Amino acid sequence: MKKVLLISFDAVSNSDVDKLIEMKNFKALKAKGTLVREVKSIFISNTYPIHTSIITGTHPYIHGIIENLKPQTEVPDPDWYWYSEDIKVETVYGAASKCGMTVASVMWPVTGGSKEIKYNIPEIFPNRGKKQIVVSLEAGSKFLQIKEFIKHGKKLKGLSQPEVDNFAVSCMCDIIKEKKPDLMQIHLTDCDTHKHKFGIESKEVNAALGRLDLNLGRLLEATKSMENLTVIIVSDHAQINVNKSVNPNVSLEKEGLLKINEDGTVYDYSCWVKCSGGSAMLITKPYISFEMIQKAKALMQKCEGFERFLTEEEMQLSGHGNCPFGMSAKRGYQFSMNKNPYEKANHGYTLDKDKYTTFYMVVGEGIGENNVLSGGSLLDIATIIAKTLDIDMPKMQGSVLGGLYSEDDKS
Fold this sequence. Notes:
Strand 10 (about 270-275) and strand 11 (about 280-285) form a beta hairpin. The radius of gyration is 21 Å and the shape is globular. The relative contact order is 0.21. The model has no long low-confidence stretch (mean pLDDT about 95). By secondary structure, it is of the alpha/beta class. It has 14 helices and 17 strands. It folds into two domains: about 5-240 and about 350-410, 3-Layer(aba) Sandwich (Alkaline Phosphatase, subunit A), CATH 3.40.720; about 240-345, Gyrase A, domain 2 (2-Layer Sandwich), CATH 3.30.1360.
C-alpha cells in the first residue's frame, strides 16, 4: 500500500528555499524529486485557512475555516478554529480513513476532536485558565499523548520554539516506527515563530531554517524502511516585515460606531473591524444602515496603513463574501487589535504582494527527479495526495502541475 508523509514548514517562503537547498537533508531530498517554486498561497493568507485548504483542496469559502481566530469581540484572547468539526468539506485524511487507511497527525491545525485520525496530537492551546495537558487530551488521542508527554514532555518549554517542533518530531518519529501509518501529517512552526519575533531576515530565522532541515532528517530516518512512500514538504505562506501596527477600530470608536475596552476588546458596536495582520474585514450587526457602512468605509480609506479595498473575488474566495468590505494593509503595516503587538513580521496579506509566494516539494514513485518547476497553487497538494493514495475527493479545486510526474516528460 502506498504511503504519504506530509510535512508543513510554516512561513518558509519561496525566497527561503535558496537557503534550504544548500542544507544537507533538503538538498538530498531535492535530488530525488520535484521542487515547485513561486507557488500561490490561499487568501486570507493565515495558517489555519491555508492548512485546511491544503488538506481539502478547496478555498476557505467552501471548507469554512476563514481565519485563525473566531470572531469573538467580547474576549481579549479569542478561541482559534481548533476543531475538525468546523471543516465543512471532506479532508484527505477523512477520505483515506474511509478507505481503511491509518492516519497520524501531529500539531496539524484544525484537527482537534477528529474521529478520522487514529493517532492524533492536535495543535491546540490552553485558553482562559485551562491547562495544556487538559485541552490536548480532550482534543486528541488520550493514551498516545500521555505516553508521548511522559517520554518527551521534558523537551517542552511551554509553547516556545524550537522546543515544540522538537517535541512534535519526536512524537511523529515514534508513531512512524511503532504504528507505520499510511498517511502522516506534521506541522512545524519554528520559522514562523522566529519571523514574527525577529523579522524575515535575521540570524534567528536562519537558525530556524537549519533546525527545520535537521528535523526533516529525523523524519526521513524514521521512514527509511517504508516502501512506496511519497514525501511532500509544503509551506503555507511567506511573511512581510512590519514597522507599524494599526487598529482600525480606533477610527470607528471616534465616530461612535463602537466602544473599545481597556484590553482592546470591542463592545456596544454597530460594526467593527476584524484584524488579520495584512488584511481586515468589516463585521456588522444585522440592523446597520447602508449610510453607516459607507461612513465606515470612508473612515477606513483614511486609516493609516490602508492600501486598497479587497476585490469581490478576494472577499468571496476567503469566505467573507457576506461582509460589506475588507481591506489590504500596505507593506510595512499590519492591522491588529492588540495594544502591544510583538510582531516584527506578519502574514495575512493579499496574494499580489511582491515576494509573497511559497513552495512545495514532492518525492516518490512516478515523480520527476532533480526537477524544478514554477507556479501552481497550494490547492494542488490535496490533489497530489488523493492521486497518490487513489482516493476520490470530487470537491477539490486544485490540479496537478504539468511536469510533476516523470511520465509527463514522455508525453
